[in-house]
Write a structure and sequence with these properties.
190 residues, 8 helices, mainly alpha, globular
Length: 190
């Protein structure tokens, strides 16, 4: 039951993008097409899950026993950067069109504060390794859900005639705000 609470909480109630406002750069930057949003979501699931496992193990097996917890941020950034480089190389070989579509936003996963935020939240919430993995996967799925829904809405908005001043970023920000309000409706669930 505890894992179900973690999953529902991470996906809907405390959605990393729409409730905690982490990961906004890729959320706004990669959300113009559903296909690129799905690709970015998959990359974030992979990186976030692996980063959480590796940072959890490093924190509990190295940083705490050696009493060098002050190095946490630097170590976590290096781990995330290495994982993103690995994802970039794999994606370049496996799916060149998706690699081209994501463009500059793939390296931006390195600085995606949502990934770093999850790695830090795991310790703030005192999760075990298994709870950490469930939390990171659910958070990444919540990120992906928000990204894909937002991309779908933005694709539909391009079909409508609207005032020139509202095209592009203004309507995207208004839509993101309304989507965040919609997700706030889940706040009483957990």
């Amino acid at each position: 039951m505890e894992y179900i609470v973690i999953i529902i909480g991470a996906i809907f109630v405390n959605n990393i993008v729409l409730s905690q406002f982490l990961g906004i750069c890729p959320f706004l930057g990669v959300s113009q097409k559903v296909s690129t949003a799905v690709g970015m979501s998959a990359a974030v699931v992979f990186v976030m899950t692996l980063a959480t496992i590796v940072t959890y193990l490093l924190q509990t097996l190295a940083l705490i026993p050696l009493k060098i917890e002050f190095m946490q941020t630097v170590i976590f950034i290096l781990v995330i950067a290495a994982l993103v480089q690995m994802v970039e190389l794999i994606m370049k070989k496996v799916s060149p069109p998706l690699y081209q579509a994501l463009g500059v936003f793939l390296p931006l996963i390195t600085t995606n504060c949502a990934i770093m935020g999850v790695a830090l939240l795991v310790f703030k919430k005192n999760y075990s390794l298994m709870e950490s993995v469930v939390f990171s996967v659910a958070t990444a799925i919540g990120f992906g859900l928000a990204l894909v829904v937002f991309a779908g809405i933005r694709e539909k908005l391009e079909l409508y005639d609207m005032p020139e001043a509202m095209k592009g970023a203004p309507i995207a920000l208004v839509t993101a705000g309304l989507l965040a309000l919609a997700f706030m409706g889940f706040s009483g669930m957990v």
